[in-house]
Design brief:
By secondary structure, this protein is mainly beta. Helices cover 8% and strands 47% of the residues. It contains 1 helix and 18 strands.
């Protein structure tokens, strides 16, 4: 019996096709979930329009919304970043993707601060990665940065404040006249669409949640009032609002 011989050109083509298929599989973006690592006080999250108590170790998918109560904080780990949600804040997970290119992991993260204040610590990103924090009147681009972003509504209008604790941020937002303003915010600077870039006043920025040696983060800073840690539970949900 003669052995079946595969033509050399065909073999090379087949190997190239296989390699391309493997690379294509590696390059497919995958949804990334957020994990709740700490809860102090009371907080809840939405799931298909229904609200549930938020618990340590909950895993939240994109579309979820978190709301913190008075004197309460929540820490999340998502796409190689730590986000601390401060009291009386409404915060949404719009998008979290990760793509394995074979040589690095490219991430695409979009979070939504509807109202309140968040603190963040984002590790250095791959060059092609994107990390954005959106608010009702603006967006902040982040690259391996420690930041403090606040969006407040009041009788005199809405106010967006972006603070860089360490690193550079790119801010864009509408001022009170509806004009789009942009800025580069460096370490120690604050920016708002109406006031522009200025030095951050002393004692304004809250402590940024640091990463620990295992890539997670340390327990949250103390806040006034009772401290409640709840038992693990799993859940995910869709956002009840549609940010612009």
């Amino acid at each position: 019996m003669k052995a079946f011989a595969i033509p050399t050109k065909f073999a090379v083509f087949a190997l190239a096709l296989l390699a391309a298929s493997v690379l294509n599989l590696q390059a497919q973006p995958k949804n990334v979930s957020a994990k709740v690592r700490a809860v102090r006080g009371t907080a809840k999250y939405s799931e298909n329009g229904s609200w549930h108590n938020l618990r340590v170790n909950d895993v939240l998918q994109t579309g979820s919304v978190i709301e913190t109560g008075p004197e309460s904080t929540v820490d999340l780990f998502i796409n190689n970043s730590v986000i601390r949600i401060t009291p009386d804040t409404v915060f949404g997970l719009n998008k979290a993707l990760a793509t394995d290119t074979g040589s690095e992991t490219v991430t695409d993260t979009e979070l939504y601060l509807k109202s309140g204040r968040i603190l963040g610590n984002v590790k250095k990103l791959a060059a092609a990665s994107k990390y954005q924090i959106k608010t009702p009147n603006g967006v902040t681009g982040i690259r391996g940065t420690e930041f403090d972003i606040e969006y407040l509504s009041g009788p005199n209008g809405n106010k967006l404040t972006v603070r860089s604790v360490n690193g550079t941020l790119l801010g864009s937002g509408a001022n009170s006249q509806g004009q789009i303003q942009t800025a580069v915010i460096n370490t120690g600077q604050s920016w708002s669409p109406d006031e522009g870039v200025r030095p951050t006043p002393p004692n304004v920025t809250l402590p940024i949640p640091p990463f620990d040696v295992e890539g997670g983060f340390t327990p949250p800073i103390p806040v006034p009032g009772p401290v409640i840690y709840v038992e693990p539970n799993l859940g995910s949900g869709q956002s009840p609002f549609s940010p612009n």
